[in-house]
Amino acid sequence: MLLPIHGYGLPVLRKLGEEIDKDYPELEKLIQDMWDTMYYAQGVGLAAPQIGKSIRLFLVDTIQVMDEGEEDKGIKQVFINAEILDETGEEWAYEEGCLSIPDVRGDVERKPTIKIRYQDENFETHEKEFDGMNARVIQHEYDHIEGILFTELLKPIRKRLLKKRLENIKKGSIKVEYKMKFAGK
Fold first, then answer.
1. Does residue 172 contact residue 10 with C-beta atoms inside 8 Å?
2. Average pLDDT of every residue of the chain
3. Which residue in 39, 35, 37 sits closest to 121, CA to CA?
4. What is the rounded CA–CA span in Å between residue 101 and residue 91?
5. What is the reported pLDDT for 47?
6. Has residue 185 got a pLDDT over 80?
7. pLDDT of residue 91
8. What is the DSSP letter of 55?
9. Residue 56: exposure state from Cβ atoms within 10 A (0-12, 13-18, ≥19)
10. Count of CB atoms within 10 A of residue 176's CB?
11. From the candidates 141, 146, 152, 167, which is the catalytic residue?
12. Domains and CATH numbers, the chain
């Protein structure tokens, strides 16, 4: 089932996500609905706060953005109760966007390598290192479960230039190809 993506300005996007356990109601269905919603909206990641749930759950599929012949370097994974343990390397800028903030993009500086502990959909615990685009997408989605939006990481001048667009998103004065819920509607 396609879920409405919560837009910029809704309080759930600013909340710290709560940990969940294997008894979380209808978790398997929720994860499948999140995959369906993410693909329909043409995203590479989706976090539970983006669909109105303040829990520590996000999914990532970077396989679809890897260069031809490099798809095996991408990941398709569910992350539950994730905790980034370390971020290393020299920060690099990349233009990011977000399904909750449509038509807004900006360069975000992030460290290229992360070490993260998380549980998969079977609640098996993993501790892994990711780098490059995989690390970047994980960091972006992880920020969502920490109540942080990528726009907070932009340079001050870029933030000022985006102010009117962000206000329009809050009001719902934008058009998107997927279902959204807005603060002003």
1. no
2. 96
3. 35
4. 23
5. 98
6. no
7. 96
8. B
9. buried
10. 14
11. 141
12. 5-181 (3.90.45.10)
Q: Note if 141 is an active site residue.
A: yes
CA distance 130 to 182: 33
Q: Which pLDDT tens digit goes with each residue over 25-71?
A: 999 999 999 999 999 999 999 999 999 999 999 999 999 988 888 88
Question: Taking the CA atoms of the chain, what radius of gyration do you get in angstroms?
Answer: 16
Q: Which is nearest to 148 in space by CA: 103, 89, 94, 108?
A: 108
Q: What is the distance between the alpha carbons of residues 77 and 87, in angstroms, rounded to a whole number? A: 19
Which residue stretches of the chain are H helix?
A: 27-40, 132-145, 156-171
According to the model, what pLDDT value does residue 67 have? 87
- E strands in the chain: 5-6, 45-47, 57-61, 76-88, 92-98, 101-110, 113-119, 125-131, 180-181
DSSP of 145-164 = HTT--GGGGS-HHHHHHHHH
